[in-house]
Amino acid sequence: MGLLDKKYHDSNIIIVSLESALNWARKSSLWYEQFGLACCAIEMMATAASHYDFDRFGIIPRSSPRQADVMIVAGTVTMKMASRIERLYEQMSEPRYVISMGSCSNSGGPYWEHGYHVLKGVDKVIPVDVYVPGCPPRPEALLEGFLTLQKKIENESIIESKPSDKITEEADRHETT
Amino acid sequence: MKQPEEIAAYLKDKIVKGVLEFVPAEIGQPWITLAPDSIKNIAKFLRDDSELRFNTLMCLSGVHYPAEQELGVTYHLHSTTFGHTVALKVRVPIDNPRVQSVESVWKTADWHEREAWDMLGIIFDGHPNMTRILCPDDWEGHPLRKDYVQQETYQGITTRF
Questions:
Q1: Which residues of A touch B134 (CB under 8 A)?
Q2: Report field, pTM of the whole predicted structure over 0.90
Q3: Is A117 in Cβ contact with B157 (below 8 Å)?
Q4: Superfamily name and number for B4-158
Q5: Reported ipTM
Q6: What's the pLDDT at A158?
Q7: For strand A130-132 and strand A97-101, is the pairing parallel, antiparallel, or unpaired?
Q8: What is the mean pLDDT of chain A?
Q9: Domain boundaries, chain B
């Protein structure tokens, strides 16, 4: 605070770095894209309902990818759906995050060997920030996924992106597709 | 209300062509085997006849018989007027799997026949829109055939783990 300390007598003024203010704003209003693919979506709905109450973290559903910050891939991604998921992801404005919810979108789940029509992990088409295991994951698990994502956002920097972040993921993605 | 064997006898009596045999199953429901090129006429008769009134197609499913090199279609009919039920079966060779469409008789058959085409490759002559229903349009092969081999890539994405 140094020079600026005690210059402002109005108690409503808080001085922080831009970066932490941005990160705080981003992590506290993670609006997610409202769509579900399979039974995981039921757990996602349960997480959003009053008992687990997503909203206390500022997490609310949006019906348009253009208004959403985070995509929850909640369920089995079929080959037919893969290109649609990719398009929805591309329609989201940056910064954008992806939570892969449940075994199916993590790795193909129960269809990993004999499911001819199932994409073996949504990370084959879009970069994933947080994987939530379970079949389907309980609401607590999805909440923990969001808390993990919040931690990741807290450590982001506007100066330069760290090698572990988007740039390499984007590069990986173009290699595989 | 008629029993399946009564329905079969009635059908044989009324229709000369296409009713092949009545099969009393040891377990489960008995069925009537029909010729694939007369199924549509028989279906119309089953629906409209005043003593049968099969107004509902409960299910239409495709079957693959790898030992006989044949494909089959099974029809389950129900009459809400009389409360009786019957199963019909049709068999076609796998190298020319053509069955008459019953879409014009029961609208239920529309999507069911598309599914049988998608999953097993049975062609329904006279269907207004014989396209895939579950798999994407550019999918290769018919997944429910016993000798189906999954394609390695789809639109550049590997299909295996």
A1: 117
A2: no
A3: no
A4: NADH:ubiquinone oxidoreductase Nqo5 subunit (3.30.460.80)
A5: 0.72
A6: 75
A7: parallel
A8: 85
A9: 4-158
